[in-house]
């Protein structure tokens, strides 16, 4: 496998001759499997050989490599004089290559697993709260982590004897935290505290509904106009990812799904091959709270998906539809990767938008539905809104409709 990246016999002998040598070919196989570019793979392989040279000169063996050894090697790079390793090749690529090589050694059992640093134990009540919320509400892990932070902070501040809590202590806790945070952070804390306090009341830990003691922060989220793109800007955005390369085809399919169906970024990241029913031309989406709906698959979205799936990497062990185009290859870890696709497409299309993530296209899709005469209840079904009021928020962007219902300004008679 090493011959794919190096051709000189002398170089091949040197790379396979050090203490890293017995594992260099396996390292090259892993790099190719994970989709690293050849130029990057060459640097990482050289870094692995360099690490072996460094450890050998110190009188050690490969099994001695740990975080301390990697730290010493990192410091060594700034004044390296090792033969065959030019200083121009050190830096980020060497550090990252050594990290990847160490992961291989740990996976092979050559190096021991690093001990997990001791962290402060999560209170039992918070663990039970997360389990209950995950089971009964279908809450995803990022949301649970946010809720757990607020609940843990509350328990450690007021004490774990919930029966001693009162409304004044809860308000003081929130107002103290709000004094050091912005409005969005405070709102998230309010939501997490109310959810935790309702759980305590449900469990019988508290006989009073203390969630009512958490005050609200004045913020009218539906007061402003929805942030969206024009039809011309949507066309420019999608055209910015025209092409035949796998990454371009993937991005175009993602953009079309967001713009036509109003999906959330997490919906796209979690989409599986079995969610697409080609015979009926529908798409199954499981969103917040495990709310499941089957949506029609527009022709242009289906065509874009087919073109992408034809060139999608087949050697990736996942049934997720969309795969990262950069190494290591695999499914998106979260919706952040999908939002990143939108952000970069906006930059390529030279569109100065009011927002940069995937939710911008959800707003755009909702606004376009209402402008084209789709009833509020049907638009809400596609967008999976729990309240018709949320869907009505987008009706404010339909200026033509607003003109029809606007009352004339009364004339002032002198």
List strands and helices in order, with pairings.
Blueprint: H1 9-17, H2 21-33, H3 38-57, H4 67-77, H5 92-108, H6 124-137, H7 141-158, H8 167-178, H9 183-203, H10 231-239, H11 246-261, H12 265-270, E1 276-277, E2 282-286, E3 292-296, H13 299-311, H14 336-348, H15 359-371, H16 376-383, H17 388-392, H18 399-405
Antiparallel strand pairs: 1-2, 2-3
Keywords for this entry:
414 residues, DNA polymerase, domain 1, hpI Integrase, Chain A, 3 domains, three-stranded antiparallel β-sheet
Structure explained in plain terms:
The structure is a single chain. The chain is mostly helical. It has three domains: 2-108, no CATH class; 124-213, DNA polymerase, domain 1; 231-402, Orthogonal Bundle (hpI Integrase, Chain A). The chain is 54% helix and 3% strand. The chain contains 18 helices and three strands. It has a three-stranded antiparallel beta sheet with strand order 1-2-3, with no helix packed on it. β2 and β3 (292-296) form a beta hairpin. α3 packs across α5 (92-108). It is globular. 29% of the residues are buried.
CATH class descriptor name of the largest domain = Mainly Alpha
The CATH topology of the largest domain comes to: hpI Integrase, Chain A
Task: Name the strands of the widest sheet in spatial order.
Answer: 1-2-3
Overall, the morphology is globular
Give the helix proportion (percent range). 40-55%
Report, as a whole number of angstroms, the end-to-end distance: 92 Å
What's the domain count?
A: 3
Low-confidence stretches: none
Q: Say which CATH homologous superfamily of the largest domain is assigned.
A: Intergrase catalytic core
Provide a count of the helices: 18
- Strand residue content: under 5%
What is the arithmetic mean of pLDDT? 84
Biggest sheet, in brief?
3 strands, antiparallel
DSSP strand tally: 3
User: What is the CA-based Rg, rounded?
Assistant: 28 Å
